[in-house]
Amino acid sequence: APNIPVANVQAHLDQFQTIATNNGGNRAHGRPGYQASVNYVKGKLDAAGWTTSVKSFTYNGATGYNLIADWPGGNPDAIIMAGAHLDSVTAGPGINDNGTGSAGLLEVALAISAADLAPEKHIRFGWWGAEELGLIGSTNYVNSLPSTEKAKIDAYLNFDMIGSPNPGYFVYSASGQPAGSLELQQVLEGYFRSINVPTELTSVGGRSDHAAFARAGIPVGGTFTGAEGTKTSAQAQKWGGTAGQAYDACYHRSCDRTGNVNTAALDRNTDAIAHAVWTLAGEGGGGPD
Ligand code: PHE
Ligand code: ZN
Ligand code: ZN
Ligand code: ZN
């Protein structure tokens, strides 16, 4: 898989910040900043040759949107999915939570296009609405699929907060949650091992969009750099950063702005997404390594 340039990911974060700033300070469900975020990501994907569709739902009296993107080709009965929630809380612009997952996934999508990837499996990415209100968009998407369509999804990878300013390197535990996949866990762990970054397993349980897929029996995995939890001294020794402080002290706050991102964590996790998608979808030819 290619090494994804983190500067490109940061450029998407700058755009999410500008969108929030121009729309009342957030990118929350039902607010204009959310719709602008969907338009931004969709525009980049369309220009890169992805097939996109915006699927709307209603929640709390407001229309919400999921953005679904398919990379043409690959076995339609063997789908590798990855996703990130695109909405923020109303308190702030949501740059680490979850501009980082959204931007990392977008840049991997653009790398797939640049490589003209011809994978064995079909690749589908999703940007979810209204995660912050209770996994509403991802749940709506999964529930909207006929069981024949759900059965075609081999795996779902979730990326929610991958650039925390005092980062941990967490991989979703296969045994620690419903439908956790050992294959997905090991593919992600394998990437971090290859760059000599130690990881820990974490049980994310029902706290993000993978839970909607897990409920349908779809194998899930993902990475995470930490939210309101506190970094231990053992973790600070192996990962750097500050012991006794939150992984993200700006979690769900107005200060979750572009400065609230650790570039190395964002870079490593974006490269991990690329590695996982390339590996799981299978390179059928075209593209580097
Ligand atoms: N889903 C949480 C949020 O958006 C963040 C989170 C992700 C927490 C993964 C724990 C594990 O606020
Ligand atoms: Zn990189
Ligand atoms: Zn959140
Ligand atoms: Zn989140």
From TrEMBL:
Keywords attached to this entry: Hydrolase, Metal-binding, Protease, Signal, Zinc
One GO MF term: metalloexopeptidase activity
Any GO BP: proteolysis
Similarity comment: Belongs to the peptidase M28 family. M28A subfamily.
Name listed for the protein in its UniProt record: P/Homo B domain-containing protein
UniProt lineage: Bacteria, Bacillati, Actinomycetota, Actinomycetes, Pseudonocardiales
Whole-protein coverage range: 31 to 319 of 434
